Each structure stands twice: as structure tokens, then as C-alpha cells.
Amino acid sequence: MNRRFFFASLLPPAFSPGASALVNRLERFTIWERRQSAPCWFHPRACLLPDGSLFMTLQTISGSDFFGPVHWSLSRDGGMRWSDPQPVPGLGRRPLEDGLEEAVSDVVPQYHARSRTLLAIGHNLYYKDGKLTMPAERRWPVYCVRRGDDSWDPPRRLEWGNPDADGIYTSGCAQRIHLDNGGILLPLSFGSKRREDRAVATALCSFDGSRLAFKRHGPALRLPVKRGLLEPALARFRHRFYMTIRAEDGRGYLTHSRDGLHWSPIQPWCFHDGEELVMSTTQQRWLAHSDGLFLVYTRKRAENLNVTRWRAPLLMAQLDTESLTLRRDTEMVVFPMLGDGIARPQEVALMGNFHTSPATPAFSLITVGENLASNGFRGNTLAARVYWNRPNRLAGRA
Q1: DSSP β-bridge partners for residue 131
Q2: Structure confidence at residue 17 (pLDDT)
Q3: Are 68 and 48 in contact (CB under 8 A)?
Q4: How much of the chain is helix, strand and coil, in % rounded to 5?
Q5: Per-residue pLDDT tens for 42-89?
Q6: Is the pTM higher than 0.90?
Q7: Through-space distance between the first and last CA atoms of the chain, rounded to whole angstroms
Q8: 8 phi, psi to nearest 5 deg
């Protein structure tokens, strides 16, 4: 494999030590510098492999939701340096009739220990005349398997016969849970052609190293505002499952479960004092540690009032698992907002598409691709190491 490494460059510090008993410090660096050149690498999502290396999927971006073919890259030094991105076979553009093209995006890779394979799950989408289009939806999860000899199986569609999902069902961008018995808990956002809002549910799937298949799913959660509930993400902490959900009513939502299928009523994210977090249709991610659970997110703040969807800076805070609220005293900046979010918001790089991953017992990794629409959708690909005061046993779960 032809490798050209990109060395780290530190970003300005923006971390107050001692905010959480678990977090020791943050170290930020740039993987690829692309503010002045193309391609801009976007949707960087990494996972841990059994040998301790990190595997990432990523795509270029050149317009609003206009992505290039899915690529992969590998790091053997904890995410500091990455190999040249290489295309994932079958996850490029596929020409259809009338100038329509089918593509794949929002891919999340994760190693499946029982089958000793890497499973990458995204979803399909359509382009026409250089733009995203939605031809009566017709969208579903697409998955691809990478084997131990570095070969890839052909991509497959995940079939689901739910009549309430005849318009769209997707697990794009989602954090899923691989169970010890080889099963997979997969969060889904789905909708019917008969209504605008989507619902969220989790499905228990089987995976034999080749085929992913539905076994059963739990009851749906709904919020009938605009497109409803989107981009759910799962975490497991101390015998309880948690799900965070993107919504379109100015909030993000939390729910919890004992079995990962039947969920409590959704509640808006808020701090311990009851103040609700104000968000604008943007995703959240879990950062799990053996001794605590963190949320990574963006929200409205005084310095970003005019930034699109308040998608900078990128923040994290620890969940109080008793009150199911965020501890305000643990909120910290993962990636600072660079630029003036009041007077010159068009110059602020958005950071609304990001991912988290365990890397070693000593630190976890957060990755994000900047999005500067005013600069031709260029931007840097950034990473941050979250160093822990106590070893993270979850890092051993490849």
C-alpha cells in the first residue's frame, strides 16, 4: 500500500483541566490540511482494530450533501498519521436512468469481533445534475464487509419489510452496538411516503460475517415536527442502553433502555440545573469510558449566534446517569470555533459531522471534517485525543 503520512499540527488550546475527574487533557491536531486545496476529506469516522491500529472511512465533499466515493485510511500510531485514502470497492457512483446517479454516504465502520471482519454501514442517496435529489425517497442502509486479507465483499442492501418504512429507512452516521453474542443493535430512522416526519427505533440484527439481517425491532419513537427524529446514536453503560437523537424542533433528545429495544419517552437534552440545550437539526455522539459516559455535540452559545445551525464550536460534557442530564461543570471545548461567529459567520468552519472512537486505554479519538461553504466546501480534517485520568477498559473492545 502506497503511504504518504500527514504529520500533526497543534491547534490553539481551549481546555480547562479538572472539568471532569475522568478527563486529563485534550490534544488537537490536523490530519489533512485542505482549506486551500482539494479534495476536502469529510465524514471521517474511525474504529479500533484488534492489532491496535485505527481504520477510518471518509469522503470528499464539494457541495451541500454532495459527496465523492467512500474511501478508507489506516493509522498505526493512534490517529496521528494516516495512509493515503483508498476507494472502497463498490461504494462510488452508479449511473441509473434519466441522468440519475446512486451513491453511498454517512458510512460508519466498526470491527465485528465474533466474525473477525470489519462491517461498514451507510445509506444510499441520489444525485442528478450535480445536486442531491430525492426521487420518492427509496433509501435504505447499505453495508460492506472488509475481511482479514484486506479484501472487500460487494456492497449489499439491508432488507426490511416494515410498511411504515416504505419511504426511507436509514442507519447513516449511527453509532451501533455489537453484542458479545455477535448480534448487532442497529438504530434506525425511518419514514413512510404517507407522512413527512420520521420515527426512530432500534433493531436487533444477526451478522455472520457476510450478511446482515433483521431479527426483530422495538416500538417506534416519534416527534411529529418537520422531518421528525433523525440520526440516532447508541451507547451502553453499566447495564443500561442510551440513545441520543437529532430532531428539528430546536432540541436534541435522550432516551434510555434496559434491553436496547424498548425505550423510555424521549426527553430534551438539558443541563443539571434544568436549562435545555438549544440545537438546530444537528447530530450528537457518545464518547464512552468504562467509568463514565460523555456526549459530544454543538449548541447555541453567545459567541456563535449567527453561525449556521450553531455548528461550531464542538463541545463535550459528562452525562449524570442518575438525573439523565449533562453536568454543566464538565462542559469543555473539543474543537474551538475559529473566526467571528457574530460579525463574519460565513468564515467560520462548521463542525456538525463528527465521530468518536476508543483508541487505547489511555485516550479516545474524536474526528471531524470542517465545512467552509464560502470557500468551496473546503476545510481541514481534524482529530482530538481525549486523554483519561483512569484507563478506559472499553478500548480493549475491538
Answers
A1: 128
A2: 42
A3: no
A4: 5, 45, 50
A5: 999 999 999 999 999 999 999 989 999 999 999 999 999 999 999 999
A6: yes
A7: 23
A8: -75, 145
How many whole angstroms separate alpha carbon 124 and alpha carbon 101?
10
Q: CATH assignment of 23-392, given 3.40.47.10, 3.40.50.970, 2.120.10.10, 3.30.70.2750?
A: 2.120.10.10
Q: What is the C-alpha to C-alpha distance for residues 237 and 368, in angstroms, rounded to an integer?
A: 24
Whether 114 contacts 182, CB under 8 Å: yes
Give the cell for residue 119: 462491517
- In three-state secondary structure terms, 3 is coil
Q: What's the Cα-to-Cα distance from 265 to each of 226, 268, 282, 283, rounded to whole Å? A: 19, 10, 20, 19
For Cα atoms 301, 246, 80, give the angle at the middle one, nearest 5 degrees.
75
Select from 320, 392, 313 the least CA-distant residue to 357. 392
Q: Per mean pLDDT, which range of 115-119, 136-140, 253-257, 381-385 is the poorest?
A: 136-140
| Distances, alpha carbon 163 to alpha carbons 135, 167, 193, 222, 272, in Å | 18, 9, 10, 16, 40
As given in the structure block, the three cell numbers for residue 156 are 449489499
Q: In the chain, what are the domain boundaries? A: 23-392
The β-bridge relationship of strands 314-320 and 325-326 is antiparallel
Res 374 pLDDT > 50:
yes
